[in-house]
């Protein structure tokens, strides 16, 4: 195992940010921690990177205890915090050299590992980090987190605030890195990124709700999800909010998603009910649930 987390909890005064979390991450796995703002992702990352002490529990990363072996641990992990962590006044090249020096290495020694990523920002190597675009900053931060060839890479919300094209490129880079013998533990609030991970853990209000492969999570989800398109989403939400068989309903893109409280039901009944209430152009369709539907359902319990 590359990461072994056993019953970790952390409170800030009365607020329990992380509650009894236990998780295992295998070697060379691309593991995603998926949850909304305030779920406890950063707190867990900081504990695993030995930057914050847990109130209880233990964790071992790449064979090192996060408390007892923190010095060795830090040499063997890469950590890219959610907030931009580079020196804005240093150039791209200076930032990378700085991180290499801290870890007693140099850019040449591990260039192979960062080549594919660094090559994209190398033309701007004399530019100050503060003047880079969001996507470029992210590539520089990743290069800096990798420069000492860590065994485990922690990426805390690396794609938050990054445009969709750069987000896609970033995940492609992670897939390539994974093949170079690195375990990747990445967090994201974007549910669509869950499908790109080997396994995921849903986290909400400091608790892990479910851990599995994205496909198994979808396959094992017991409820049926109906996608509803109408010319009045808002009114439909209100009508279904009062409907006796509604289990849940919420806006989803330009449609709304509905789950019924019965085990067996005909989606056309929902269409008829909406039409009886004066809503026009109703289309209902049974769909494969999205990761977000499952997260919403698990968060209700
Ligand atoms: N140093 C701190 N002092 C007090 N409360 C904190 C501290 N750090 C985090 N919290 C609180 O702990 C909870 C979990 O925060 P955390 O940053 O771990 O969540 P997150 O999932 O990373 O979300 P975000 O994307 O908003 O950072 C939040 O309610 C946050 O306000």
Automatic annotation (TrEMBL):
<feature type="domain" description="ABC transporter">
    <location>
        <begin position="3"/>
        <end position="230"/>
    </location>
</feature>
<dbReference type="InterPro" id="IPR003439">
    <property type="entry name" value="ABC_transporter-like_ATP-bd"/>
</dbReference>
<comment type="similarity">
    <text>Belongs to the ABC transporter superfamily.</text>
</comment>
<keyword id="KW-0536">Nodulation</keyword>
<dbReference type="InterPro" id="IPR027417">
    <property type="entry name" value="P-loop_NTPase"/>
</dbReference>
<dbReference type="Pfam" id="PF00005">
    <property type="entry name" value="ABC_tran"/>
</dbReference>
<dbReference type="InterPro" id="IPR017871">
    <property type="entry name" value="ABC_transporter-like_CS"/>
</dbReference>
<keyword id="KW-0067">ATP-binding</keyword>
<protein>
    <recommendedName>
        <fullName>ABC transporter domain-containing protein</fullName>
    </recommendedName>
</protein>
<keyword id="KW-0813">Transport</keyword>
<keyword id="KW-0547">Nucleotide-binding</keyword>
<dbReference type="InterPro" id="IPR003593">
    <property type="entry name" value="AAA+_ATPase"/>
</dbReference>
<dbReference type="InterPro" id="IPR050763">
    <property type="entry name" value="ABC_transporter_ATP-binding"/>
</dbReference>
């Amino acid at each position: 195992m590359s990461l072994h987390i056993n019953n970790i909890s952390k409170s800030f005064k009365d607020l329990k940010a992380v509650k009894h979390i236990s998780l295992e991450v295998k070697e060379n796995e691309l593991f995603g921690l998926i949850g909304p703002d305030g779920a406890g992702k950063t707190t867990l990352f900081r504990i695993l990177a030995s930057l914050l002490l847990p109130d209880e529990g233990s964790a071992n990363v790449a064979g090192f205890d996060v408390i007892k072996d923190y010095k060795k641990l830090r040499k063997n992990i890469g950590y890219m915090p959610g907030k931009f962590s580079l020196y804005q006044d240093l150039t791209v090249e200076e930032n990378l050299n700085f991180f290499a020096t801290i870890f007693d290495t140099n850019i040449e020694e591990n260039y192979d590992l960062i080549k594919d990523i660094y090559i994209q920002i190398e033309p701007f190597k004399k530019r100050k980090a503060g003047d880079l675009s969001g996507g470029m900053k992210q590539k520089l931060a990743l290069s800096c987190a990798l420069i000492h060839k860590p065994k485990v890479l922690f990426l805390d919300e690396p794609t938050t605030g990054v445009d969709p094209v750069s987000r896609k490129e970033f995940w492609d880079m992670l897939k390539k890195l994974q093949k170079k013998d690195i375990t990747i533990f990445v967090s994201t609030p974007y549910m669509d990124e869950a499908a790109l991970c080997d396994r995921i853990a849903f986290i909400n209000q400091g608790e892990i709700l479910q851990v599995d492969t994205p496909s198994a999570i979808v396959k094992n989800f017991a409820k049926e999800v109906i996608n509803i398109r109408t010319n009045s989403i808002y009114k439909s939400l209100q009508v279904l909010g009062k409907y006796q068989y509604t289990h849940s309903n919420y806006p989803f893109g330009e449609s709304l998603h509905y789950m019924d409280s019965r085990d067996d039901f005909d989606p056309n009944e929902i269409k008829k009910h909406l039409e009886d209430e004066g809503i026009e152009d109703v289309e209902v369709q049974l769909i494969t649930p999205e990761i977000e539907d499952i997260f919403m359902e698990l968060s209700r319990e």
